[in-house]
Amino acid sequence: MALKSPTTDDYLGIYSIMFWTLTLIGVVKYACIALKADDQGEGGTFALYSLLCRHLNIGAITSGNVSSQSSLSHNNMHQGFKKQSKLGMFIERSLIARRVLFFIAILGMCMLIGDGILTPAISVLSAMDGIRGPFPDFSKSLVEGLSALVLVALFLVQKYGTARVSFLFSPIMGTWTLTTPIIGIYNVIHHYPSIFKAISPHYIFTFFSRNGHQGWLLLNGMVLCITGSEALFADLGHFDRRSIQIAFLSFIYPSLVLTYAGQTAYLIQNPNHHDDGFYKFIPTKLYWPMFVIASSAAIVASQSLISATFSVIKQSVVLDYFPRIKIVHTSSSNEGQVYSPETNYTLMVFCVAVILIFGDGKEIGNAFGVVIILVMLITTLLLTLVMIVIWRIPSVLVALFCFIFLTMEGVYASSVFTKIKEGGWIPFAISLILAFIMFGWFYGRQRKMEYELAHKIDMDRLKLLLSDPGVQRVPGLCFFYTNIQDGFTPVLGHYIKNMRSIHKVTVFTTLRYLLVPKVAPNERFVVKRLGLKGVYGCLIQYGYADSLNLQGDIVSHIIASLQDHIMQYSIENPRAVPLEEQEMIDLNEAQDAAVVHVRGKTRFHISKNCTWFDRFMLAFYEFMHSNCRSGIPTLGVPLPQRIEVGMFYEA
Please, is 406 exposed, middle or buried when counting C-beta atoms within 10 Å of its C-beta (0-12, 13-18, 19+)? Predict the structure, then answer.
């Protein structure tokens, strides 16, 4: 508390600030507006970005195997809209504007991951610190050690999935949202029954007029009253919109309003107890039961950000902005419920490290405040674009939205940033590391795609290669993976020249991740003939909320699509029926003979002519690429059927 001798009016002003912050940001912005900006059930800053990408032609800066535009009906929905807005047309034409938008989305995602590190650390540490109330001799080191053990246990149960973990935690949250407001009402009646007069904004103006600069500095602590609101939106993939709105508006919001009122009422009568306002406002007889409930609730609060972190990491992986890691779908009915072992244990290490290194909760709190306000500012900016470009909200309402929320969050940010030296730098360090990893991966993927497009093999070149008498057509079915849709990867030429053969039925397969959450099952596999006997093309399309694991059934899905394609062609061209029947026979024989999946395992050959920047970034990319997971295992391809063809790309 920055105020040396806080008065009753000071506490009333503080409560008024917290009430209106919680009401405007928590209720109006997130519960009523942001939750409606979901991208087919997915939330978070990356979902807002993908929503904008689907309505604007701004997919050009994404990597090669990601597309924001396709032939999908739902991906062309913007064609049915009225004329594009001026802002939309400006973003489409300006590469700088598209890059700025992409940078904002990436920064928001990095900050949310930082939130996933800091929320468990500060929540559990603050709750465990309550043990020092009855036992002052209980050292902070022991509190930190106990907090670390609790966090380790929390991360170890993540593998069981959000649904099971939430089922265990639901009674805890129910108890928390019931008991804390009851204690709050008790304190209001016992200490200051007229506390709710502070709802009047008048107390906010008098607070700042009386305290000035000192009052402004207090905002860096008050911003924590709204923590968790960003998780409401990011957790949309784990819970549906209606359940989140009901839980927040009916239980969480009233509970917080009454709890803060009770704490404020207690502090008005005990103005010097502000260092530990929560535990001290609890009646003595209820101290230990509330300690258990508070500690358990802190774990639940941590769970929401951990789940949100899994979601945004999964989104970035499938959009090819992050090295491939293992993603496990923990629910058969809800694709948004995911778990990543690598992410989980990395978060665990960072959370424990933050507690052990920055055991003083003040530095963690300062870092936490920076993360919260930056995520909220980025969400406000992206929501504004959605309102203008997609929803076509009247300009007056958009201006009102921007004025209210950018002003509020801007003032909070100006106060929070004064704590950069006192722990506020932590989220920036985390974001810098994450952004460097993402940029290095994205840069390497872009350079590979540029090389493949410059050296791709077209149909004429393929016909020439296959016309060589020394090239044999061997029995079997081959799925040859390529990132190029309008040609073939250079690895194909390398393969044919060295193997001197190609399978009788070869399906050139491209995995295409779209900037949409889900792709309809009937649009997932797009097959076509390529003009050569036994040679086909197959496009497998996925959104970032789709499961990539077909559990070894990839062959049957593609074969079924090819058979449907051949039969449809026979119906449309009756004269070609004999040829189509032979195709069906060849297809079945090839499948019975052998099935192989061939992918290129390419590396950069960094020549002496490369710049120092290319040398460093490509070496970093190669390090990540050599240690990340392969793309094919995500399709459930059996190990004996995989073949990797190595090739050097000259940088």
Answer: middle
